Amino acid sequence: MSWIESPLLTPPANWVTLIQPIANALSLTALPPVAHLVLLSLAASFAARRVSAVLSPRVFGRYYPTERRKRDDWDLHMVGWLYALVATPIAIHLLRHPSPELDLDPLYGVALPEQRLSAIAIGYFIWDALVTFRHIQTQGLGFFLHGATCLVAFTFTLRPFVLWCGPRFLIWELSTIFLNAHWLLDKLHLTGSPLQMLNGLFLVSTYICARLVFGTYTSWQFWKLMVPGAGDANTLLAEKVRDAGWVRWLYLVLNLLANGLNFYWFRLMILALKKRFVPSPTTSASKLAQRKPVPVDGHLGEAQERRVKGE
Question: In the chain, how many domains are there?
Answer without folding.
Answer: 1
